[in-house]
Amino acid sequence: MSTTVDDTDDPGAGTGHDSAADTGLDLSPRTGGGGRGTSTRRPARRSNPAAWFALAAVVIGIGFVVMQGLGNATLYFRNVDEALAQRDDLGTRSFRLQGLVRDDVREDGSTVRFTVTFNGAEIAVVHRGDPPDLFRPGLPVVLEGHFAEGSDTFESNRILVKHSEEYEAENTDRIIDAEDGREDGDGG
To answer: What is the pLDDT, as a whole number, of residue 188?
Structure first.
């Protein structure tokens, strides 16, 4: 008895051959090349150290500017009486002190000593550097600095003079010129 095999559906059936091989398809894995539909692995990029240093410098610069801005924004105002009441909490941290200059201003070279007062409280001040031109007894000032360690003396490194109403009334033209960015009314 003989059996017949119908080879019409699968040309490689019964012959021991793979049908894909008979059709010319290559099913072996690809190891390289750059043909269509293949994924090639790119060589690792070497990073440029100069670019990393430049990026680090930019980040450090931005951080410095932000810290300076925050530092200036956190200098709180204290009136003389408030500063004395909070002396222990303030320690030697920087803050702004507001008060009225008493009539005891003494200059010794680049050091100016005076007293500021507010609501009956007084603080002795030592300022290093030249005071502003408008600085004089009887004017309200804002001082930037800190308490000296272990003392109630305020060490100032900046004096801001507030114009009194009397000054503003007598010098309206100077104030307008300053607001316009001009000096001495010269118009330019």
So the answer is: 40
Q: Residue 187: which residues within 8 A CB-CB, separation 6 or more?
A: none
Look at the block and give the residue holding tokens 């930037």. Answer: 144
Instruction: Write down the pTM of the prediction.
Output: 0.50
> Where do the domains of the chain lie, and which CATH numbers do they carry?
77-180 (2.40.50.140)
Q: Which of 170, 168, 52 is nearest to 179 (CA)?
A: 168
Nearest to 130 by CA among 93, 92, 161: 161
Name residues of the chain where pLDDT drops below 70: 1-22, 32-41, 43-44, 69-75, 162-188
